[in-house]
Amino acid sequence: LYYIFQNKRNFANNNFNIENLYQSCHTMLDLKIEIKKMLFNMVKKQDINMNKFSCRIKAAINYIEQNYNKKLSLEEVANYVNINTYYFSSIFKKDTGMCFTDYLQKVRIENSKKLLMQPQYKIYQIAEKIGFTDEKYYFKVFKKYTGITPSQYRNKL
Predict the structure, then answer these.
(1) DSSP of 11-33, one letter per residue?
(2) pLDDT single digits (tens) 104-115
(3) pTM of the model
């Protein structure tokens, strides 16, 4: 049940109380039927909430993946999907489990790993190609996500 919901708060808000349900049923078969009904309703409710904005979040993710190498802001992506910036930030985190900045950095680092496999690019060039304006900051973010520096990553290949 926990994994049906994206976080514990959503799980708790659905008033799933097995003890009350157990007390209200006369047989185990009744209990089984009631649990199935409850689960079905919970999942249905969750799907309705997810479908409201999932298309916009998918569009935002696609936009990020196509434009990660540019100077990209939360405001720009929120405007692209036509959602208020604050609200977009909230539903983006709820749907992806990451805040916008972390997601953008993750996309940039994953793409930089591909470029690090190509020896013709110097590391500062890779940093620029993936949207970082400061090479030192790129090193810091890369190490945060991978545990090693870009140079160490390249040497491991």
Answers:
(1) HHHTT--HHHHHHH-SSHHHHHH
(2) 999 999 999 999
(3) 0.66
